[in-house]
Amino acid sequence: DLLILDEPTNGLDPPQIREMREVMIRYAAAGRTVIVSSHLLAEVEQSCTHLVVMDRGRLVQAGPVAEIIGSGDTLLVGTGLPVDEPLVDKVAALPGVASVVHTDDGLLVRLDPGGTAPGLVAELVRLEIPVASVGPHRRLEDAFLTLIGGSA
Question: Which of these, 145, 125, 146, 143, lies nearest to 134 by C-alpha position?
């Protein structure tokens, strides 16, 4: 059996969202496949076990949600500075950096396969960019933005 849902929780009140989530979980637990198309990534993160990320009709990544959230060596960097485009561009040009997205919490930096957090911090210090905090980031929304390069 196959169940395909397009934006199943969009416009629902919290109790209805919980009920829809439980329906999807029950359906999947019965050995059935549930495919959900949604832009509500926080809901996808809570409801789904596997994910396909697409951007402009092309497959970007597919796999378990936990792997996609943790993939790409994504770090959240707090600088203590106002974040603007010149700062984002400067960090994006650093060696070992694959992409940079500005979030409300700071810079979301996805490292190249050879990039490391200590290497990033050293480069930021070399450029006299203050580093208030550096840590892994694990929200699906931010992982998604990093995977598609921050485009809308």
Answer: 125
What is the token pair recorded at 104?
A: 């409300």
The two structure tokens encoding residue 139: 């929200």
**Which pLDDT does position 71 carry in this prediction?**
56
8: pLDDT strictly greater than 50: yes
Q: Give the C-alpha separation, 67 to 48, whole Å.
A: 12
CATH pick for 69-147 out of 3.30.565.10, 3.40.50.300, 3.40.120.10, 3.30.70.980: 3.30.70.980
Contacts of 141 (CB under 8 A, 6+ apart): 41, 42
Instruction: Identify residue 123 by its one-letter amino acid code.
Output: E
The answer to whether the CB of 131 falls within 8 A of the CB of 124 is: yes
Question: Residues of 3-37 as b/e, b for ≥16 C-beta within 10 angstroms?
Answer: eebeebbeeeeeeebeebbeebeebeeeeeebebe
- Name the band, by pLDDT with cuts 50, 70 and 90, for residue 68: confident
- What span, in angstroms and rounded, lies between the C-alpha atoms of 5 and 33? 11
Per DSSP bridges, beta strands 50-55 and 33-37 are unpaired
